[in-house]
Amino acid sequence: MRFSALPWRSFPRTVASEKKIPLSGKAGTYGLSALSPSLSALSVPPKPLLRCRASFSTLHDAAPPGEISLPGVEDEMVGYIFGKKKATDVAHSVWKHVVRRGDTVVDATCGNGYDTLAMLRLVADLSGKGRVFGMDIQEEALTNTDSLLTQSLTPSEKELVKLFPTCHSKMEEVIPKDVLVRLVAFNLGYLPGGDKEISTVSETTLLALEAAGRIIEPGGLISAVVYVGHPKGREEFEAVQAFASGLSTEDWVCCKLQMLNRPLAPVPIFMFKR
Question: Residue 7 pLDDT more than 90?
């Protein structure tokens, strides 16, 4: 398995206020500790019985990453290394250390609704301020998502979720202009159990990533699980990887988690905005 930090490019965006996240420490040798100073809140300390050297490549010099213990991420990471956890499990565990109660988040590809539900459980609070904006171009996906939410949530909780039958590239059209977003998540590919001929493609996914970069707030995260096993998956993976690699090192910290001997395994890519 290879865990790589990616170099970046900048986004033109003006925000009302920007909070910096001061983090520091020394480099680790395991898992997410290979990120960088601003993503040290997502790093994982090494365990004596399992030491995996994380290799990373970057086009820019970077300071040594910090090292902070994060409950949950370590368990999911070890489970993923041993083949007992999915890429989406790792993504969900990372979200927990970024998203707060009352935040606004976006599920850019609702699918069967499991990511949407996980997001709602992170942002929902008694004040009713948390919001989840979900979208998918397939009616079947939105129906499946709505059904899962109905089964899993109370009516008041479900009111915090807004679903839209639209392409993820148009997310800025459905999210209020004055709202800053803490998390935008992509689970790319085709709908599980649906028509495999209908899938996300690199052209619209790149537009969606650019839109996500404009609406994400400092301290927020763009999370993408990319599937390389379907016909257009490899092209989409290379496009997402190139996008993340081009983001500015001043504003973004990006990384990927990739299996070495399973070339068709899904690849989680994280883009953290400083």
Answer: no
Q: Which of 148, 141, 183, 187 is nearest to 164 (CA)?
A: 141
As a whole number, mean pLDDT of residues 41-62 equals 37
> Of 13, 7, 19, 94, which is closest to residue 57 (Cα–Cα)?
7
- Domains of the chain, each with CATH number or no CATH: 2-273 (3.40.50.150)
Tell me the β-bridge partners of 268. Answer: 225
Query: What value, to the nearest 5°, has the Cα angle with vertex 78 and ends 76 and 83?
Result: 90
Q: What is the spatial distance between Cα 170 and Cα 215, in angstroms, rounded to a whole number?
A: 12
Whole-prediction pTM value?
A: 0.76
10 Å Cβ neighbour count for 142? 21
Question: CA–CA separation, 44 vs 74, rounded Å?
Answer: 6
* Phi–psi pair at 145, nearest 5 degrees: -65, -45
Q: Label residue 58 exposed, middle or buried (CB < 10 Å: 0-12, 13-18, 19+).
A: middle
Quick check: 79 pLDDT over 60? yes
Which residue, 39, 66, 62, 99, is CA-closest to 257?
39
| β partners of residue 5 | 255
* Three-state DSSP class for residue 177: coil
Do the strands 181-187 and 104-107 form a parallel or antiparallel pair, or are they unpaired?
parallel
Structure confidence at residue 231 as a pLDDT band (50, 70, 90): confident
The Cα 169–Cα 207 span in angstroms is 5
